[in-house]
Design goal:
The protein has about 190 residues and is an alpha+beta fold. The longest helix has 15 residues. PPIase which accelerates the folding of proteins during protein synthesis. Has a preference for substrates containing 4-hydroxylproline modifications, including type III collagen. May also target type VI and type X collagens. Monomer. Homodimer. Interacts with type III, type IV and type X collagens.
Length: about 190
């Protein structure tokens, strides 16, 4: 999903994050964005956002807050939606960055574009045998074997090992030995 959004704290209405450029007296001003305020995978260090550009994220793979995953289902391109996210579906008891613990969050979200990924969330879940939201080499190898057997192909251990190594060389971007749900979004003929 490609979205523009603004995030506010319910308690005082203060803006903690925005992807939009605001107009002040007719002059465009880019709001500085702190990545810690963004829901999900892009949390971390301070970062000035891409000159008011919208952001891409994948719904349903824990890349956003749970409240986003639930609240944006069924949204259509061009739709604007206001989400009120309770702490349990947001940053909870810990808070995050500028967001205090136990904060209810308000997001105004504009959906600009939807793209179907080359592989589905369901495929990832099928491969993720231990439900830890990352794929190990063993999990990928097990999946490849099942796919080969399902299509009547001969299972060749050394061939599967080479395929798995090739997949991880290309897709394990952070070289941590796992393919995360985010890294999984790229196309592979092997899978």
């Amino acid at each position: 999903m490609l979205v523009h959004y603004e995030g506010y704290l319910e308690k005082d209405g203060s803006l903690f994050h925005s992807t939009k450029s605001e107009l002040i007296d007719g002059v465009g001003v880019v709001i500085e964005v702190i990545r810690e305020g963004f829901p999900g995978a892009w949390q971390g260090s301070s970062h000035k956002h891409n000159n008011g550009q919208p952001i891409w994220f994948t719904l349903g793979i824990l890349e956003a807050l749970k409240g986003w995953d639930q609240g944006l289902k069924g949204m259509c391109v061009g739709e604007k939606r206001k989400l009120i996210i309770p702490p349990a579906l947001g940053y909870g008891k810990e808070g995050k960055g500028k967001i205090p613990p136990e904060s209810t969050l308000i997001f105004n979200i504009d959906l600009l574009e939807i793209r179907n990924g080359p592989r589905s969330h369901e495929s990832f879940q099928e491969m993720d045998l231990n439900d830890d939201w990352k794929l190990s080499k063993h999990e990928v190898k097990v999946y490849l074997k099942k796919e080969f057997e399902k299509h009547g192909a001969v299972v060749n251990e050394s061939h599967h090992d080479a395929l798995v190594e090739d997949i991880f060389d290309k897709e394990d971007e952070d070289k941590d030995g796992f393919i995360s749900a985010r890294e999984f979004t790229y196309v592979h003929d092997e899978l």
